[in-house]
Amino acid sequence: MTFRSIYQHGFARVASCTMRCSLADPAGNAEAVLRVARTCHDRSAALALFPELALSGYAIDDLFHQDSLLDAVERAVETVVAGSKDLLPLLLVGAPLRHAGRVYNCGLAIHRGRLLGVVPKIHLPNYREFYEKRYFASGAGTGGGEIRVAGQNVPFGPDLLFTAEDLQGFTVHVEVCEDLWVPVPPSSAGALAGATVLANLSASNITIGKADTRRLLCQSQSERCIAAYLYSAAGAGESTTDLAWDGQTSIYENGAVLTETGRFPTGDQIAVADIDLDRIRQERIRMGSFDDNRRYQDVIAADFRTVRFRLDPPSADIGLERRVERFPFVPADPARLEQDCYEAYNIQVAGLVQRLRAIGCEHPVIGVSGGLDSTHALIVVARAMDRLGLPRSGILAYTMPGFATSDHTKGNAVRLMESLGVTWRELDIRPAARQMLSDMKHPFAGGEPVYDVTFENVQAGLRTDYLFRLANQNNGIVVGTGDLSELALGWCTYGVGDQMAHYNVNSGVPKTLIQHLIRWVSASGQFESDVSETLDAILGTEISPELVPVEPGQTPQSTEAKVGPYELQDFNLYYTLRFGYRPAKIAFLALHAWSDTERGAWPPGFPPERRRSYELPQIRQWLEVFIRRFFGFSQFKRSAMPNGPKVSGGGSLSPRGDWRAPSDSTARTWLDDLERNVPRS
């Protein structure tokens, strides 16, 4: 496998298909299935799903009991099996088959010239427009059986799982249409037994609103089962004597819609997506209640028979049929981002309201630099005071210029504090810093331009020290401003810097989200218009700690030049923290998300001039920095972090919540993985 192959990184390309049906013409339908299957093969799909009773047509009523038709179906099965010999995908095809004196509505699993097994439908609808019990027997109780089809005996029953022996985690369960509509679908047991891909061969006529119902059922089943769910409904060519058909095909994963095709097609239609088998596996590892439920439901692997096949997936670069957000903490969809910002902001406000109310504090103390983090923390504090019915003048805010504080950021800080109506002061830390540096006999005190970490942290530490003593003096608490991204990278001064506070409202918010939260607060009119104007000005300021002086004409100190672009580091953080992915997979995903500024959507309001792209060498470089900082030496800061609310489903770094790790571990395992599996170009 090459680095750029999806199959190297735990993905599997799957397809949900529908084609024009020829009623009661199995030979014609077999040709159509193979035609579409070849297209799926050409697109390197590992699985191709077809509708219920695709080889005969669904709406043919009593023709299901005609021997000529059933004989023709068996010949059609032979045709599809023979025609699949040189095709990559596992084909799941619907057909009516005779067995033990009855006719069954079945899903057939076919791969590379083999009929692997036959799964009968269990739940037969017999209400309103449906009359399936007239034609078919239920597959209930048929587990462990065999069926003779097209001259061969193959496994028969709802207890079948189809597993690719050369693609880790690719195990398929089959159910048929109505099986999904009951309180406990067969796919639930299949998932508990180990299936990661759940496939539904469906006919499902269309009525007003029914497509939404199907989507809800499939999406929720994929969420509950922590699985991919494929759905294919009958479309063009089905009988419209009394019904109509819309050919809905869709693919879901862990509650997310990966892709859907249009409806009411006139011919063939294929939904293709790359499902993430690693994500499914990782989620099941984390969610212990999933396995608890397996035991509660008394489902064991031995309840199912596993039919193995060899997929032989392609090793070359076939692209990625999957949307990868550049900003996994920041959705590009405007409505989703609006909702996320509303919830994130109110989570932060609600957290602080409860803390202030619980301890009877009316004087939150905060340092305001004019940067993004302290700006956002201040507008959270202001809204919390509003909610508590307390005057904003009770907020004690301080701007504390140091040796490199710019007039621009300081001016923004002052304007913001004034427009919010808080009680504020300027507290110049430079005299105290000079005294401390002199006491330490630091070269700077002797006039040398030595701007080392000690020089920086003397300033950061003094700011925090002043804030804590001011909180003591005023019966208040220090509200922290450091964010999730800084905690991940260890970019915070331990104990007497922005790592510490009495309560940190930003500790669950990544850097890439904060700018959108500020933008949302401004645009949604949460505060007065002059506040919004200042917020907009702050959004245009480059991220900098402003601790190192610069000469005229020099570039100000840049945080991102040291720790890497936050947009990449937040990407690395999300997939490390939320899913535990290997460095190679994270790099692969980053390459698809970030290599082309024109591919994929950007979050609304994201400035065009800041839209950057990254190639593999840059992605690898900053991923190595992330690994060294996150795994190598930053955990001790997180192990002692103050309280603060979890905000994003992507995770938090609190040792009391999402992330527990030893403070003295090493990064070697992840660095070795990076070295072995991620090329440098």
Question: What can you tell me about this protein's structure?
Answer:
The radius of gyration is 30 Å and the shape is elongated. The protein has helices spanning 26-42, 67-83, 186-192, 210-224, 277-286, 288-296, 334-359, 372-388, 407-420, 430-439, 453-473, 484-489, 511-523, 529-539, 559-563, 566-577, 583-594, 616-632, 635-639, 668-677, and strands at residues 11-18, 47-49, 90-99, 102-111, 114-120, 145-149, 152-156, 160-164, 171-176, 197-201, 228-232, 249-253, 256-260, 269-276, 305-309, 364-367, 396-399, 423-426, 477-480, 503-504. The strands form four sheets. A seven-stranded mixed sheet has the order 13-12-11-10-9-8-15, covered by helices on one side. Strands 5-4-3-2-1-14 form a six-stranded mixed sheet. By secondary structure, the protein is α/β, with parallel strands linked by helices.
Structural class: alpha/beta
In spatial order, strands of the major sheet run 13-12-11-10-9-8-15
Mean pLDDT: 95
Number of strands: 20
Distance between the first and last residues' Cα: 16 Å
Count of individual helical segments:
20
Shape: elongated
Tell me the strand percentage band: 15-25%
Instruction: Give the helix proportion (percent range).
Output: 25-40%
Radius of gyration using CA atoms only: 30 Å
Q: How can the largest sheet be summarized?
A: 7 strands, mixed
Low-confidence stretches: none
Secondary structure layout:
Blueprint: E1 11-18, H1 26-42, E2 47-49, H2 67-83, E3 90-99, E4 102-111, E5 114-120, E6 145-149, E7 152-156, E8 160-164, E9 171-176, H3 186-192, E10 197-201, H4 210-224, E11 228-232, E12 249-253, E13 256-260, E14 269-276, H5 277-286, H6 288-296, E15 305-309, H7 334-359, E16 364-367, H8 372-388, E17 396-399, H9 407-420, E18 423-426, H10 430-439, H11 453-473, E19 477-480, H12 484-489, E20 503-504, H13 511-523, H14 529-539, H15 559-563, H16 566-577, H17 583-594, H18 616-632, H19 635-639, H20 668-677
Parallel strand pairs: 1-2, 2-3, 8-15, 9-10, 10-11, 16-17, 16-19, 17-18, 19-20
Antiparallel strand pairs: 1-14, 3-4, 4-5, 6-7, 8-9, 11-12, 12-13
